[in-house]
Every structure is written in structure tokens, then in C-alpha cells.
Amino acid sequence: MSKTGGGAGTRKAGAAARLGWGARLVVMLFSGVFMLGFGAGGLFFGLIPILDNLRMAWVVRDWQPVSAQVIDVGIEERRGSKGSRMYVLNARYAYRYGGRDYESTRVGLDHWGGADNVGTWHEDWHHRLSDARSREQPVAAWVDPQRPQRAVLERRLRWGMLAFRLPFAIFFTAVGVGAAFVFFRALLGRATMRPRLSSARPSSASPPRQAAAGAAGAAASETQGPAVWPRSVTGRLDGGGVLRFRRTWLLLLGMLAGVLALMGLLAALADDAGGARWLTALAVTLGLLLAVHGLSSRWTWQVRQGSLHVSRGSWLLRREWQLSRAEVQRLADRLVYTQSTSGGPTVEHRALYVATTDGRRLDLSPALPAPQGLRAVSEHLRAAMGTAAPRDLT
């Protein structure tokens, strides 16, 4: 009877796992479409051009004025998808700087500009440059003193174009980021929505209190108050589940590294790197690697066949180890940092670790708020492993 029931339970668990993978694939498919579609639209039609324009407006402040002669100018009219008229300004001018002659075709700050009908910028500059050419009069140009082959005629921002791109930068990018969040949570096996406390987190009245088997453990629980489950921990170990530790700082670091890599990529695409292209490429590569590491990083526990399996790392670097019941029985904690908010009481944040027989220390968790949060996780671990609580744990 017990073997039959166990087999049925195993088959049900396998069916549930297959269903879980199917649901995850569906979520990844739909969120991936939104991530690529809206994310790419927000980046390449909104965020990147806006950041590039703002960056160029800051860079050209120190460029030097020179007189330029208009060689050729023209305006190209195109039709939009709905029959609207859009324009592209084409110009070529010559100037002299540092005793050498140069030519440039750049009028405004926008690297990403194409045909548009936002305002009358194209028409106004076409009229101005055509008039200067016909009269053979010079126009003012602004030259990069470090790289004289770069010059612009207009140093001011096109505020109308920035306002046009702003909805793409905000809404499309926000949808892409949200879809990416759902995509990576499904890829890493996490729920797309935060589950309720009763279904995803061990309640303070079940596994943690069941783990306090001895009288000393029960007395410690009563003295220190009820265990409180940390907000940075999700999932559960019983029933073949997985316990996950969220490290927000690493996620934010990955996002910051991604932004910095994007800015470096913008500089490289805009040909602003100059002789330090290799350094820019190195910075972009390191930024992307750090972004991938931070965004894909995870720290998990799982109990399999009476052993605790700990996995820590990302797609780039991962460490895994396995601990027996006897090793978990030697569970201890160490102080990582203390925190006090708005003059409130100081809260210690401690990490759980196990000292191996060869003198090494294996960190089993990131910093957890002590004593209640730390005790809740450790008691839940011992309940899942079937071990007793030591007396010296915080």
C-alpha cells in the first residue's frame, strides 16, 4: 500500500512538473514577445536617442566655433505609412581648423535622426543653408577640438523631437522591462506573481515551531517572540519545494551595469571613443557581463534524498554543494551588518553557515534579519531535514 501510494504520488509530482514547465514556456513565449517588441521599441525609438541627444548637448558645450562654407544642401520628402509627409535634411559643408581643411555632413545633435515631420526643423534649416549657399555666405559651425573632423551646425536640442520620443522611452521601455522581469522569473523557475503567505511561505505556526523539538528550543522561541518570515525569502522546502533568497542589491547592481554598458555602447556607436575604442569595448563587455551576472543571480535551497542542496551563482558563475543532516546540525550564524532606519532600533543581519571538518566555512544564506527572520529560516530548514535545533543559534 505504501509503495503504491508513493508511486502515485511520484507520478502526480511528475505530471505537475511537466505542467509547470509547459506553463513556464507559455509565459516565457508571451513575455519574450513583449520584451523584445516593446523593449526594443522603447530603447531604439525612445530611450537611446534621448540619452544620446542629452549626452551630445553636454559634449558640444566645449566645441570651438568656426566659419563654414555650405557646399551642398537638399531636402528629401518621404511618405509615411499613413500617407503623411516626412522630411530628411541633407547638407555638406567645409571648414578650416588648426591649419587643415575638413568637411562634415552633420547638422544637428541627433545621431539617430531620420525622416520625421515633428515641427519645421528640416524646412527651416534647408531654407537657411540654401540662402547661405546662394549668397556664398559662411555659417557658424562648432568643431570638436580633440577630433576636428567632427562638427555640427546646431548645438541646441530639438525639444519637440524629445517630447515625441518621451512616450516611447517611458511606456514602451516600462512594458519591456516588466515583460523581461516576468520572462526571467519564469526562466529561473519562480512564480510570476508573489504567492500568498499561506501557500508559498512557511507560516510562523507550522514548520518553524514544529522544528523546536527540545525544551531549550521552545523556551528560546517564547523568549525571543514568534518567528517572522523574511521578505527576501520565498518558497518552501517541504514537499520537494525550493527556497529562494532574493538579493536586491545585486539585482540593482546588474541593472546599473546594464545602463553603463548601454551608455558605453552609445559612445562607441556614435564614434565618440576616439583612440580609446578598445577601452570602450572592454568597459562595455565588462558591464554586460556584470549585468548578466546580477540579473540572473540566484541563491536556492532544496532538500533531496535527505540532503540539503545549496546552489549559488548566475549563468556565468555557479557554485553548488550538498550537506548531510549531520552537517546541517552544526548550523551557525555570523554577523554581516547592522541597520537602523530613521533612528529606530538597530537590527542585526546575520548569515547562516556551516563549518566543514577541514576548517572551511560554507555560507548557506545571505544576510537575514535577526533574530526572528534568521530563526524562521533555520527552523524551517531543520523541520524539512528532520534535525533538532541547536541551543546557540541567535
Give the topology, please:
Elements: H1 2-59, E1 64-79, E2 85-97, E3 100-104, H2 121-135, E4 139-143, E5 151-152, H3 159-187, H4 197-200, H5 207-211, H6 215-224, E6 233-235, E7 242-245, H7 248-269, H8 277-296, E8 298-304, E9 307-313, E10 318-323, H9 325-329, E11 332-339, E12 347-355, E13 361-363, E14 368-369, H10 372-385
Helix pairs in contact: 1-3, 7-8
Tell me what the structure shows.
The chain has 394 residues and is of the alpha+beta class. It folds into 3 domains: 81 residues; 91 residues, no CATH class; 140 residues, no CATH class. Helices cover 46% and strands 23% of the residues. It contains 10 helices and 14 strands. It has a 5-stranded antiparallel sheet. Strands 6-7-8-9-10 form a 5-stranded antiparallel sheet. Helix 1 packs antiparallel against helix 3 and helix 7 packs antiparallel against helix 8.
Provide a compact summary of the structure.
The strands form 3 sheets. The chain has a 5-stranded antiparallel sheet. Strands 6-7-8-9-10 form a 5-stranded antiparallel sheet. It has helices at residues 2-59, 121-135, 159-187, 197-200, 207-211, 215-224, 248-269, 277-296, 325-329, 372-385, and strands spanning 64-79, 85-97, 100-104, 139-143, 151-152, 233-235, 242-245, 298-304, 307-313, 318-323, 332-339, 347-355, 361-363, 368-369. The protein has 3 domains: 16-61 and 159-193; 64-154, no CATH class; 197-247 and 297-385, no CATH class.
